[in-house]
Amino acid sequence: MEKRFLTPAETIRAIVENGRRVLTQSRLRTVVLSFLSGVYIAFGAELATVVTQDAAGFVGQGIARLLSGSVFSLGLMLVVVCGAELFTGNTLLSGSALQGEISWGKVLENWLIVILGNLVGSLFIAWLMFESRLWSSGNMVDHSLRIAVVKCQLPFGVALVRGILCNWLVCLAVFMATAARDVAGKFLACYGPIMAFVASGFEHSVANMYFIPTGLLLSGELGRNEPGLTWGNFFMANLLPVTIGNILGGVVFVASAYWYVHLKGEGRRERPEG
To answer: Which of 53, 69, 209, 243 has CB atoms 3.0–4.6 Å from 143's, for a disulfide?
Structure first.
């Protein structure tokens, strides 16, 4: 009888071995998969914005956040089941480097390509949604601007800590999805942690590549001068600290922790060049 799921030791080993794909996968393939991942996360972010545009007034702030996290989880479900390269999930490549399966140079190369591909994919969906004019109905404009402004006004340290907490949960979702052996199990593995990080108000770098540019596009179109909402603040006040936090959350608290518990001391392969 086939196992319904992998043990934690088997899961981190599968994640580490899967990291070897960066040794043979072409850069162009990585670019395409990264673009798609940015698109998928943006779909989740867009859906969360639509669903919660007026929900708090009817069901309260807490339930509205629960709804937001519930529908946003679609993004990681698409990434996991359809296959794509997501920067936050790829912080788990650090486990492969710790085990000597790939070099740290390959990890950094992958991260750079993937985060740029994620950015392009997210911006593409933000632009398409802007051009769709679907934001012109309901409370979409005010809600989208409010999300973007709040994110751009976060202090650096606050954004960094929220980034750590976010990717701790995201990488646990990827960890559990790897352990699951069927699609239903992978869906459930994605849902819980992603719902939790969104409902809690944590910060995800790739999601913010949709949320904040959407606010910037709308503010420019409507001539609304929102405090702190600039492209400079998007990159330096939000994306930079959140990305650093996401790296720390995934590398330290998931990849390194489970590598240390289950794989440290096992025989290593010769460290590859690159």
So the answer is: 53
